[in-house]
User: What shape does this take?
Amino acid sequence: MRLPIFRATLGEALGRKIVLWGWIASFVLVALFAVGFVLLYGQINGNETFSATAQRVVIGGLLTVLGLYVGSFLSAFLAMMLAAGSVSTDVDSGVLQAVVVRPLPRWRWYLERWAGLVAMSVVYVVVLTLAVLLVAHLVSGYQPVSIAALLALLALQVTFLVTVGMLLSSRLSSVATGVVLFLYFGIAWLGGFIGWIGKLAGKTALDTIGTVVSLVAPSDALWKAASSYALPQGIPAGLDDTSGGSGVGALPFLSTLEPSPWFVGWAVLLAVALLVLGVRAFSRRDL
Assistant: This one.
């Protein structure tokens, strides 16, 4: 089956400087992560007060998750930049008038465009994540709980952002789409932080606000769900405690709890619903 828009989307994305700079930024991130990991792990490894398990958690765990957290942000940034002008740019340039009137139905153009952007974003986040995990494994023998689950949730995160971005681009200009999309991403992060504060302080109202925001804007919650699978195998007792405000579970950018299947299912369902809305919005837009 020929997929002209899918192939054209990949070619266009590869030719854009944002993709090139995204790969350059990822190379710098992995290089800095490798240097920092080697130096810090070497210092801790020579300290007899730390057990082998504690070394794996404190250095192998937290530093690796921090590297993955930055990588997740870069991947989300790339996905949002690719999606911001995915529809509006072609509409404003007049290209779509010659493409979707006769040769190609609108719904097919939209879905192929979406698939191309998702493919680019997923490949980027998978390669970057595997590079960080490879460095951690070579230096310390680091083993996460589940690489497959980690990659799947990070792929879902960028897929969701591309879906939202294309929906917005179907109705707004490229600049407006970028602004709204970044605000949406920022609200998701803020909601996660509020929820973390609520759990830490025992404030039910704040925890509820964080939960509601994570359902409406699940990108940050998807990262935290992924981070639970990025933690090292065999976390010792006490280091994952969240009730006393200590341990890796008390940090605002990760979670030690396995994500609920209901939440993951909701995120998938929401992405599908927004994709359908995007197709409908694009089919009604004047070209």
Summary: The two ends are 27 Å apart (CA to CA). The chain has ten helices and no strands. The chain has one domain: 4-283.
